[in-house]
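Morning F.,

Quick status update on the modeling queue. The single chain you submitted on Monday has been processed. Sequence for confirmation:
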Amino acid sequence: MWATAVGVARVRALETERENALFRDPLARAFASAGGLWPSSPPLPEDEAARRRRLAVSFSIVIRTKFLDDLLLEASASGVRQVVLLGAGMDSRAFRMDWPTGTRLFEVDTAAPLDFKASVLRQERAVARCERITVAVDLRDDWPDALAAAGHDPALPTVWIAEGLLIYLPEDAVDLLLSRIGTRSAAGSRMGLTLGSRGVIERFGADAAPGSAASMWVSEMPDDPVAWLAGHGWEARTSTLRECAAAYGRPISTPPQREERPGGLIAAVRR
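C-alpha cells below.
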C-alpha cells in the first residue's frame, strides 16, 4: 500500500509548480521521480468518469495537505513540541515547514517506505528543520511501544496526524488506533484526521482498478464524527472539503450531488 504514497507525492509536486500553490513541497518531485511517477505516470485507459474521479482525488489531497499544515502550525503556536505522523509515507513536513526550537517529529511507518524515503533524502541531501525520528513498525503491531522506545513522551502534549490512512483500515482497527493514541496523549494534545466521507467507497471504489488506492478503501466516517471522537476523549470540529476549498481560494464550482454530511477533515483537541 505504501506505493500509493508516491502517487500522493506526485500530486504535491504538481501543486508545488502552480503559481498560486497552497503549499510548496520541494521534495515531492524527487519522491515521485524515484518512484517512477515523474514527469508523468504511464497513460492509463480511462473513461470520462474515471478521469473525473482521479482529478477529484488529487484535489482532495491538495486541500487536506493545506488543512493539516495549518493544524500543525496552530499546534506549534500553542506550544506543542511533539509531532507524530502515523503512516508517514512520503510526508516531508519535517523538511519543508518551519518548526519551533525543540520540536521532535516522529515518522511512523513500515520499513519499506521509510527505507525508500531515506534513499531519496540522501540523494537530495535534505536537512530536517526539526529533530526527525523514524519509527519502523506496522500500525497493526504494537506501535505504541515502538514509539515509546524511540523517545516519545506521553506526559507532554503531542499533535497526531493520520492523513489518508484511516480509510484503509477496518472500523475495529480505526477504533483501536484511536484508543492507542488516547493512552499517549496528554491534555492539550491535538489530532488531525482525514476520514472517507459517507458514500465515497461506493462512488470511487466500486469499479476501481485492482491494486489501485481506491480498491483498498474499506472504511468511511461515522454518521456523527464529533460524538464518535468525544467517546475517545477528543473535542473535535469537522470541515468539509468544499468548505476548506472555498476558504483557500479554490472553490468547488459544481453543486453537491447530495446533501453534504459532516466533513471528513477533522481537527481535535484532548481535554
